[in-house]
Amino acid sequence: MSKCEENFCEYFQSAICLHCMHRLCIYHIEDHQKILLNQVNELKNQVNQVNIILMNASKMIVEERKAEEKKCIDWRKQKIDEIEREYIQMTNSIKNRQKTLEQLELELNQRLKMEIQQPLEHMSIQKSTNPHSIDAIQLAIQTIRKDSTSLIWNSQPSTLPKQKKIKPWKPRNVLWPLFRDVGRNSADRIHEFVQVKESIQSSIFLNFMFIIFRR
Prior knowledge:
Layout: E1 15-16, E2 23-24, H1 26-126, H2 131-148, H3 186-196, H4 200-214
Helix pairs in contact: 1-2, 2-4
């Protein structure tokens, strides 16, 4: 029988070692198996280390994913809040614009009625007027027509034209005694009144004064 192929071994061959593919005796076969088992244990340790690495990596991925998801949630909430604020601002702007236009429309209608329609109706009833009243009404028509150009919808609401507070038009009987005197100074007093009173209502009052004066 052949001897063990391990160096300096005098024992006879027992089997072929799967570790080195040599023909070894039973003792060296066992020694070589121990080497293989040690390698197996080392591999197991390496596998455990890799497993720990993978577990830590997986845990880190989960934590980072959750952190990214939280960022997305926070970002979404922030954007929704911004959109909601912008939406409220836009709707408020629209409401304010609508209110501004409604106020302007109401004011123009009031001015049209008080400064133009009522005086014209009174002139028609009285069947009498004067150039000053006609000029004043024409001026009022031009002014209202000009102000009505602001009745358009745009992104920058225009400022309402500053107007004096409109009061209901009616003849002021308290001024009539001023023109009851038809003496020598009446013309001068009427001329002075015309120079001071240039508004529409004053012109209508003047019309009534002329009527009284003629009577």
